[in-house]
């Protein structure tokens, strides 16, 4: 394996962009162009190295815009409605978070606020910002810190789990009360689907697609 | 398994954890990735010690999470405290067994599996064994993938609390168990993140 010569002035850490290292076992591969439907897997540990990214930057931005619309709906509309003696109680995401705070479960309130509201919101806004510039082939201001932030908050968005939680809560509450899923629940279901589509997209490609000079 | 596959440390390379860039290993103490500025290291620092610490802390919190009730249901003066397990049983008996299976998997099977799998991985790494490396690597990826679904019960308690509140007629209140459980999930997630799966492949590179 021949490596590009490191004669550059950057003696500290000369980088080699045409190589690929498996994150799970440290095996080095030469990057190959993938065609539609291709998934490159590590020969040693069978982890996914790279997938063909068939969604372009424009489509990704459109997807982020869709997520934004659905996210607003999921937060504004009530998720579950409970009818009791002609009275109706609506549960909204922020109502749930504030209620947990008041009921002496501040830890849970903070966890729910972070994983269901702030982290998804940050991810969405950061991606929207980066992609607006990226589709014009430019690095957005704050590209580097935002990309690093996206990497760190990625495992901590839990909207999909919340959808299952809504389902279980409805079934549990239905044992005693008259409960119905509300518009917000469907918005959350749509959000979970969109997040699943997103999980196949490797955001790291932006590092390679938009070179640094073009700031 | 072929030993001809070159590994990064043999070639003097380091892959950046954050952005994936392949960098030259310069043996400098605090090397940073030229692209994203993240710290470069051959393996996650103190991976085993950190994972053990987080895993043990998570296990300690998992005991009150299961023993203490997570939710109080008050209905016409009738007070009923539910633990995670009794919630599953209630769902099985009164409502839908299929959902009971899902909740049981998310709240009991997944955390237990994380303790067992991460514990096994850590011990096998300590012993430096070559045993079932591909399967162990797969187990690790599975644990990482399913980890956060354990939050299910925490969200259910939160939703029910917000939904059912009519003073003394009927109300649902969260109890301390749910806080311990939430913390257990966070700690097990941190534990699986701090484990470095490359350690599985680091022991002497003979064929299986």
TrEMBL record, chain A:
Keyword Magnesium present in the record's keywords: the answer is no
TM segments?
59-80, 107-131, 151-171, 183-201
Short name of any one Pfam family annotated for the protein: PqiA
Q: Carries keyword Cytoplasm?
A: no
Question: What are the UniProt keywords, alphabetically?
Answer: Membrane, Transmembrane, Transmembrane helix
Q: Which InterPro entries match?
A: PqiA-like
Q: What is the annotated signal peptide range for this record? A: none
Report which superkingdom the organism of origin falls in. Answer: Bacteria
Q: What is this protein called?
A: Paraquat-inducible protein A
UniProtKB/TrEMBL annotation, chain B:
Q: Which Pfam families match?
A: PqiA (PF04403)
Entry coiled-coil feature ranges: none
The subcellular localization recorded is: Cell inner membrane
* The keyword Repeat appears for this protein: no
Which InterPro entries would you find in this protein's record? PqiA-like, PqiA-PqiB_transport
Q: Which key words tag this protein in UniProt? A: Cell inner membrane, Cell membrane, Membrane, Transmembrane, Transmembrane helix
Q: Which residues cross the membrane?
A: 52-71, 99-125, 146-172, 178-195
Chief subcellular site?
A: membrane
Protein name as it appears in the record: Paraquat-inducible protein A
Native source organism of the sequence:
Dyella mobilis
Q: What is the lineage of its organism?
A: Bacteria, Pseudomonadati, Pseudomonadota, Gammaproteobacteria, Lysobacterales
